[in-house]
Amino acid sequence: MTALPSPATTLDGGPSGRGNIRIGVVTFPGTLDDRDTQRAVRLAGAEPVELWHRDKDLKQVDAVVLPGGFSYGDYLRAGAISRFSPVMESVIDQAGAGMPVLGICNGFQLLTEAHLLPGAMLRNNHLHFICRDQKLRVETDRTAWTADYAVGQEISIPLKNIDGRYVADERTLDMLEAEGRVVFRYLDMNPNGSLRDIAGITNEAGNVVGLMPHPEHAVEPLVGTGRTDGLGFFTSILKKLVDAR
Amino acid sequence: MTLDTVKHATETPEAAQPWKELGLKEDEYARIREILGRRPTGAELAMYSVMWSEHCSYKSSKVHLKQFGEKVPENDAMLVGIGENAGVVDVGQGYAVTFKVESHNHPSYIEPYQGAATGVGGIVRDILAMGARPVAVVDPLRFGAADHPDTKRVLPGVVAGIGGYGNCLGLPNIGGEVVFDPCYQGNPLVNAGCIGVMKHEDIHLAKASGPGNKVILYGARTGGDGIGGVSVLASETFDSTGPSRRPAVQVGDPFQEKLLIECTLEIFRENLVAGIQDLGGAGLSCATSELASAGSGGMRVELDTVPLRDSSLSPEEILMSESQERMCAIVEPDKVGRFLEICEKWDVIATVIGEVTDGERLEIFWHGEQIVDVPPRTVAHEGPVYHRPYERPSWQDALQADDAGALPRPATAEALRDQVLQVVASPNQASKAWITDQYDRFVQGNTVLAQPEDAGMVRVDEETNLGVAMATDGNGRYAKLDPYAGAQLALAESYRNVAASGAKPLAISNCLNFGSPEDPAVMWQFAEATRGLADGCLALGTPVTGGNVSLYNQTGETAIHPTPVVAVLGVIDDVTRRTPIAFTEEGQLLYLLGDTREEFGGSAWAQVVHDHLGGLPPKVDLERERLLAEILISASRDGMIDAAHDLSDGGLIQAVVESCLRGGTGARLVVPEALATDGSATGDAFTFLFSESAGRAVVAVPRSEELRFTDMCAARGLPATRIGVVDGDAVEVQGQFSLGLDELRAAHTETIPALFG
What we know:
The complex is a heterodimer. By secondary structure, chain A is an alpha/beta fold. Chain A has one domain: Class I glutamine amidotransferase (GATase) domain (Rossmann fold). Helix content of chain A is 22%, strand content 23%. Chain A has helices at 34-44, 86-96, 106-113, 170-178, 231-244, and strands spanning 22-27, 47-52, 63-66, 101-104, 120-122, 130-138, 154-161, 165-167, 182-186, 198-202, 208-211. In chain A, strands 2-1-3-4-11-10-9-6-7 form a 9-stranded mixed β-sheet, sandwiched between helices. Chain A has a two-stranded antiparallel sheet with strand order 5-8. In chain A, β3, α2 and β4 form a beta-alpha-beta unit. Chain A is globular and about 45 Å long. Chain B is α+β, with helices and mostly antiparallel strands. Chain B is globular and about 85 Å long. The A-B interface holds A 29-30, 32-33, 35-36, 39-40, 69-70, 72-75, 126, 128-132, 158, 160, 162, 214, 216-217, 219-220, 222-225 and B 160, 163-164, 167-170, 253-256, 258-259, 346-347, 436-448, 459, 462, 465, 575-576, 757.
């Protein structure tokens, strides 16, 4: 079993004297993994901050996570309605200004709907919801959320969705690959028919990352898959933000 | 059309009424007239018809269910017992857990997706209504023959419905069963269970008290779906020549339910309700009459204030509608403002539709005119009670005399090997991952164990690692051979599964699925099963906290096997000590706990190899079950075992194969010289591998703990036989055969996708 890292002790008041690193977790109507994501943030040593879809106020957070779930019941298209919520206006603004944003599952779908990331998600090619422990290869450590991983590292984290098939036109896919913006690929099996086995991507600046699998479900050895392979997302961002201070 | 007001009903005593079409019997209609001293109005008739249905009133089963309240074991964990939306037990550290299993059998046959989806929705609202946050769901499912064309229609729809609804609610699906048997053709059993967690002080009850308190209906608008679901659908035998029942099936919206959950939990946190009830079967008729009946006063409702999806609905239809995702709360006047604010925050429609009165009547008005004026108890709690005749069926003796022990057994090691493969690949014994992978088991981040483990387990407290476990089990084949023993075997298996995971069994809920109560043979099965279950619970010290009865599961004259499904809830002080089923490390020693006898009646082997059902089910020894559970729990707590797997259908070999495949390791087994301590069975490989004797488990013991573990078993008098070791990449039975893990994995995992994928 992997031991959990101790909460970053330097952050109580912190050497910079600016208090905890605050990571916002947005709750939309129908969001499911908000409390799980808050737990993951806490276990990594940062302070989770609840953000509400109706509020434009991001409460001075240092980064934002758009968690998984079925915002607005996935009606119309996953993420298509929540993309227009007040909080997203601020998230889109701040993401443009360089604030780190992570979209997990429904959050990833939302990021594509908001055009913060290219491409779109379609129904899984087998048409079923699929919940499994999914092996991934980390393709880049040059994002705000993956610095703690090594390029080529293989990790396993839960995947659970019905609309997880990543698609984009050939030109976009070529561009993503040429620019090193494919962050994760599915290994061993492609669980949903995603083009080029893509499980997660980033924007040009590397501050916005979206992926379908759920790192927040793999942060404790006791629950879920029994692995802590997802914790690196949250420690990556924490270190980056601490270093930036 | 003139409105059928109370006044109009009094003036037109002889007007013809559609009581028969609404599912009422002639004497029931006469009794309603007697209670009211006049003919009922159309709205009153609608209410009585749904509330006096078998599904809501338990009129045929009540006299037998009584035992669960009479044969109560000493157990101080019970906080709320039978009669509320769900029972509540104390799990320590100030936490209480509520859990329940309900059936949604008939709707799931007619409209598999919506039937199953709304089954999940209904049970989750029951749990929510107790004041708890729902934390996990389980789904015991039974279908017709796996290769029957209609099973290909029903199963994928049911599974997609459970996933589509449950996944969208954010509730991990941690357990359940999938069973195939031709007896469920045309009558699939779709049972849904839910567990909820709260603090003791958060328990809420379904009662309306305090004159002047407001009645608030909140959640979805009321539509025309599900009208008469409980009466004409759930309480009648299917008749293939009748009109389509599809409009009686409700349509679910899980997004609305998710909002309802979060909204309700926030309302609870601010302590804004005096009483609460969900709207499920029988809709507003049920919620208003039950709340008023359980409370101290009366209730007045302005029915025309109910928000509608379809403005043309009649008052009768509004009262009977089973539209989903609705709740009804009783709120003190000064808290109504805040209540409505929270509903607005969550985009949930909330409407004050009436108030609690100091009278004794439930009065309902439609645009100012009175259409209902009834004593609520007569609707909700004083429905008809039937003492249905029951009689041991004439064929029972012949069935029991048809001994499975006389079936031809494999003559060679090769034949034995083939039959092992046949059994582990059979639809009932094969891996159900294709199904359970369509359910989210990770959400909420507290899932410690989920299927295919013996029991599902979730963490309740992140600081202390307190957790709860639940298993559901039933075996219709055993119950058909002997309903009394069959019910106890279902209880024993579920109890054993919980203990195998390391949790201490605390209390049970049940879902009793049977054929038509109007058939004396079915009624005998029901009477025997309930008696067996009540006696069993007394012996095991696990009280019945509540449950559900589903009757009329039959087509024409043919009833399903009697299928009592038992859910056992357990508690574990420290979830880090849970015991998984996987054999993970070479060198772990395998011990068989309990006695193995030549017991093949109702077994998986008899079904798979000989398509046979006859003889007697395995013998029940509840004292032994208790001892086995104590050993399993102690061994888990003290770190003496690495894995444990209960033995049930398929016998030892099925359990070993599952544990090996789960851990990716092989095992070498040796057939012991004696299988039972009383010398009743000598060590033959066939009995060793396929017997389904109860009260057994296989455990993997680390070498360093062997002495301590065997000493404990010896001191407590539990037979523990060393049967092998975890080793290699095959399951080998010495002197008999060896089966490679790859071959076993293929046999075990390919069956279900090949049938339904």
